[in-house]
Here is the input.
Amino acid sequence: MIVRYGIYEGSVAAENQAQFDRNMGDEVVPMLARMPGVLEVRLLRGIGVGALAPRYHQMIELSFADDAGLLMAMNSAERRDIGRVQAPSLDLFSGHTPHANFSVTRRLRGANVK
Here is the structure.
């Protein structure tokens, strides 16, 4: 299994938060889920601890069965369309958005999972 992360390292001004979250959750994430090769999409929201603001505002996690699935998604017309839909959100975001790919080498389920 291959996992790709889009990492939103930075922040969104409080007055733009609702618009940013709505666009990412209601527009961008569903489009990501429709890309060929994608098995699952998860939208993760950064949380602060105590008075500390989160370093990462948001992360998007995409899961693929293998390298071929990842390449299929990255080369798809759907991926190119996402940039257009995502642009308004990126205008509200202050920071940078690195991406990273990982191979899942081990996965265990917790004792409380049925």
About this structure: The domain at 2-103 is CATH 3.30.70.100 (Alpha-Beta Plaits). DSSP finds three helices and five strands in the chain.
